[in-house]
Design brief:
Elements: H1 3-25, H2 41-52, H3 54-57, H4 71-79, H5 82-87, H6 105-116
Helix pairs in contact: 2-6
The chain binds heme C.
Length: 122
């Protein structure tokens, strides 16, 4: 094997090595930061409830007579503490979403922040 070929081979192995190292070293995909200031009712809270709660708590016959598909209805569940109590799975509340995994921590924190900021229709 002449020098040039050997050099090329070495370079190639180094590159492959670096690629493999990079691939293994890669952190899990970066998740966007969880924003918990100025949480918007329409842009943040409603989509969370739509995705996780409307299946049972909307329409003409919501589960347990608890609708969650309007601001006024949601506000009631804020006032009686049940919205947060149920999603945070606090003692004394029925854990929601029913028979499913807990909401991701970020979503729970966003709902908490929105409530703490006054549960505004923003
Ligand atoms: C699969 C249907 C289903 C889903 C999905 C669901 N719920 Fe419920 N929810 C129920 C039922 C049924 C009850 C009544 C449970 C009981 O009283 O034992 C209930 C009760 C509640 C209560 C009253 C809890 C209490 O302690 O009195 C709240 C608040 C509530 N749900 C909010 C939510 C929220 C918020 C979500 C979404 C994160 C959600 N639910 C998702 C079916 C559901």
């Amino acid at each position: 094997m002449n020098r040039d070929k050997l050099t090329t081979l070495l370079l190639l192995s180094a590159m492959v090595g670096i690629l493999i190292f990079e691939a293994c070293n890669k952190k899990s995909p970066v998740t966007p930061d969880c924003i918990i200031t100025d949480v918007s009712f329409s842009e943040v809270i409603v989509p969370i409830l739509e995705d996780n709660c409307y299946g049972c708590h909307s329409g003409n016959n919501p589960s347990s007579g608890i609708p969650l598909d309007s601001y006024e209805a949601i506000k009631q569940q804020v006032a009686n503490q049940k919205l947060y109590g149920s999603i945070a799975r606090l003692p004394g509340y029925v854990p929601m979403p029913l028979n499913k995994d807990s909401l991701p921590k970020c979503k729970i924190n966003q709902i908490k922040a929105w409530i703490d900021e006054g549960a505004n229709n923003n």
